Structures are given as structure tokens and as C-alpha cells.
Amino acid sequence: MKPTLEQISVKERAVLRKNLIVRSFAGTGKTTTTKYVIENICSATSPVLYLTFAVSNVDDALSKMGGIEGLSITNIHKLAFAAVGSQYSHKLGDMNIRSYKELLGSQNFDVPGYVKQAITNFINSTDAELTLKHVPTLKNYKFRQIPIQRNIVDLTFKMAKQVWSMMLDVNNRAVKIPHDAYLKLYCHRPETLQEWLRYRTVVVDEAQDQSQQVVELEKRYVAAGGHLMKVGDDHQNIYDFRGCSNGLAYFETDPTFDICELTQSFRFGERIAQAAKIILKQKGVEANLKGTEQIDTHIRPIGYKVSGRRAVIHRTSAGVLRTAISLYHHNIPMFVVGGLSAYFTKELNDFERLKRGDTRNLSKAFLKTYPTWSAVERIHEQTQDSELGRVIKVIKMAESLKIGNLDQTISHIDQVSAGCNNPTAILSTVHKFKGLEEDNVVLSDDFFEYSMLMKLEGQKLVDEINLLYVAITRAMKNLVANSLLTEFLRRAGQVKLITGSISPYA
Q: Is 329 in a helix, a strand, or coil?
């Protein structure tokens, strides 16, 4: 395909070694543009480092650009693991709130929760040392925030430093170290910058979701004379909950950077482009996104029956589970992206048995922390732990669906999913389907209702709008709307974008 004027503009600036921010809306040929640029600037004597987000993105890039001489394709965690993380391979992983409580020997969950948050705050920061500023000073209490006592803050700080030291100790197998921790160590080691400077250019894909310490490393690379090109879509920034931030925004005001846009989508037609612009306008963005004339993408009403394979995209893991159980009971062939078990804790079976009052064969350590189901709910209320929140939600949902053994049902669904070569439905959360596309997409009903969405403020509202934008822009031919999208279009006076008659099946 002949390059567009937008793509040529990006290439010409890159050839002149202009540092670049390339803002690419959904489906606008980001990978094609990146390949086009790299082919024109990369050689054995002018090597390029191409960094992308997930392992699947690396594999996709290798299949499309692996033959270019002088090009190294990887992601930041792979680089960090090879340089630093491999020494921790025997103790990698996340510690849940119960692990912190047992480690610290605490009688309640307050201090363990604060220590866990302090460690997370520090790891996600650009700071080289853990200090008091990383320790939370407010706690949630009955839907409001109240100050944490100073002596508790000081105790938390002391314990957080001890835990961090134990994480760094390769001989301490009892205390796990998260993947983002060795990434932090990699970004702060002096040798890393010198390794980056071996490359004439560093290209960062999916730059809207980056850790702050990687951005700081990029700044040092540019200051040392490196050539940086960052590619991404601000509106696909959906990993804030994992400590990621919009890595494009950090260089907006840097006078050494040119800003380019890719606005012509090759994935979907004008109806999806118009819907996307309506959604993004809710956060004050006037998006210059254009649909392709080559594809007549339809937005279908709720309940519309699409023919052929479809992706059912959900906001939550509980939503994926609910749909999977329904399809499983109706013997509809399906594939769950990433597997259903990956969404839930390995202790789900223990929690399910605890909810039923069957404590036989549950470990003493588990029962010491969670003696009753009411204790689980109380601990979640105290700590707002996201993992416990998911457990409570899915177990209550399973009860409402009269699922006798949830853990076993999930295992059976995963077996069926893994062996399904021709699925009718592909099930996923928005997060796991990011970067993918499908002819037919059905939006699940587990997104916020419009009235609830409008009660959100600040980053929480932005996050939800971004999720909906990512979800609708996965569709190429048919997008079956949910109530949230329908209400957005109705309020914008654009219900006419929805075409087709309603069917009782989807």
C-alpha cells in the first residue's frame, strides 16, 4: 500500500533525526508506519531498538519486521530481566495482603495494607530511595478519607524499608519481588544508559502506557544525544491501575520533539470514527479521526444477531466469567483470551469453600487470616484490596447463577476453550483485547451505565472513557452496542449511526 501523506511526514522527520511523538488513533496503521520509518533509518551501522508493550506485541513485531538488519525487537521487561531480573527468577511474583500480614506478624490488616501501598508507590515512582513521601497518610473510612496516626506512618515507613530490603535479597525466598521492581533497578543502574546509547534510535511503541522510571531513562537517553521516537494513542491509556502513565505527554513541551498525528483509520468505517469522536468529546477532546471508505462498518442495536465469529468485550473479569458460564451451559464454542483462570486468584476454591462454611482441609494459615466469610468482607472494606474485591464479586455472582463449584467450572471452561479451534465467540476484557481486532464485536453490558459514569471525576472518568473508546475501535465490520454507547449516541443526537433491526439473540 502506498504510504499516506501523514506516514511520509513521520518518515521524513525521522530520517532527519528529529525526536518524535507520533499520536496514532485506533486502527491508523501504527505498526505499518513504524515499519516504514524503521526501514528508512535502520542498518547495521545505524541500529534501532524497538520497544513494545507485551510479549504478544513483540511476537507480532518480529513477524513483520524481524528481517530488518540492525533492528532489535523486545519489550522493556525482557531487557530488564536479562540485565537484572534473572537473578530473582526463583522469587518473582506479587505478594497479596495476606502475605504481608503474615510476614509482618500483624494482628490486623491496617499496617500490612499501608506497607503494601508504600512499596507500590515507591516502585512506581522515579525515586532511587524509599522515603516517607511514599507512605500513605490517609485511609478510607466509611466513604471518606481520614488521616493515619503519625506513629503508624512512622511504623509503616520502617517496615516498608525492611520489606524492600528483603525483596532485594536474592537469598530471601520467602519475600517475593514483583516484575516492576527489577524494572526499576534496571532503569536506575548506570550501565543501562550506555547500553541504550549503542542504538542510534530507540522506537517506543504503545507509549501511552509506560512506567515513569522508563520515561526518565528515555529523558537521559535524549539528553545524551540519542534519537527517540515515541508512538501511541493517548486515548488508549488504560493501565493507570498498574502504575502506568501516558508516556507521550512527558515530552509534549520539549522543544526538541516534533509532534505528528496519524488520523486515517484503515480498520473501520466512518460510523465507528464518529462514535469514537463523540465518546472522546466527553473528556474535552476534539479528535480528528477519519474512518476508511473501503469498509462500511455498522453499529448495531443492543441484541442484534451477528453472523459468524464475534468478540464479546467486557469491562471486568467478572463479566467475562458470566458470559463464559452462559455459553458453556449452552454448548456454544468459545475461546477466552488468556484463559479464564488467569483472571482469578489461585485461592478462589478456598474462598468458595469458606463462603459455604466448609472449612475442612483449608490451611491453618488461610483460616488464621480469613476465619469466616464475614471476615473476608470486613477485611476488604478495611483494605480496599482489589484481589479480595474480585473474589467477593465472582463468588456472589456464582451463587446468583447457582454454580455449585466455581473453581471446577472455570477449569472445565478453560479446557474447552483451549481445545476450541473454531469458536463462535471470543471472550475478553478490554485490557486483554487491546491491540487486537475482529470483524464482529459485541459490547458486554458490564460497562458503567451513563448516569453512573457521569458521577465520576478526573482520572477515573478519563479511564472509563478510554476503555469504551478502545472497546468500540476493535470492530471492523459490525459493532453491537451496549446501553452506554447507545446513550452516548442518543445524547449527541446521533442514534442514526445505529443501523439494523433488533433480534432477541446476540
A: helix
Residues 443-492 pLDDT 10s: 999 999 999 999 999 999 999 999 999 999 999 999 999 999 999 999 99
DSSP state of 264: B
261 closest CA partner among 34, 2, 24, 469: 24
Exposed, middle or buried, 404 (CB in 10 Å: 0-12/13-18/19+)?
Answer: exposed
Q: What are phi and psi of 129, to 5 degrees?
A: -125, 145
Strands 138-141 and 144-147: antiparallel
pLDDT number for residue 83: 98
Angle 76-77-79 (CA atoms, 0-180°, nearest 5)?
65
Distance separating alpha carbons of residues 180 and 95, to the nearest angstrom: 13
* pTM, full prediction: 0.90
- Range with the lowest mean pLDDT among 1-10, 199-208, 378-387? 378-387
**340-349 tens-digit pLDDT:** 998 887 888 8
| Euclidean distance between CA atoms 140 and 109, whole angstroms | 13
* Burial category of 328 from C-beta neighbours within 10 Å (exposed 0-12, middle 13-18, buried 19 and up): middle
Judging by beta carbons within 10 Å of its beta carbon (0-12, 13-18, 19+), is residue 505 exposed, middle or buried? exposed
Rounded Cα distance, 477 and 475, in Å: 6
From residue 215, alpha-carbon distances to 125, 283, 346 in Å are 11, 25, 34
Q: How wide is the angle at C-alpha 318 spanned by C-alphas 313 and 319, nearest 5°? A: 30
Residue 35 grid cell: 515499519
The closest of 155, 163, 192 to 94, measured between CA atoms, is 163
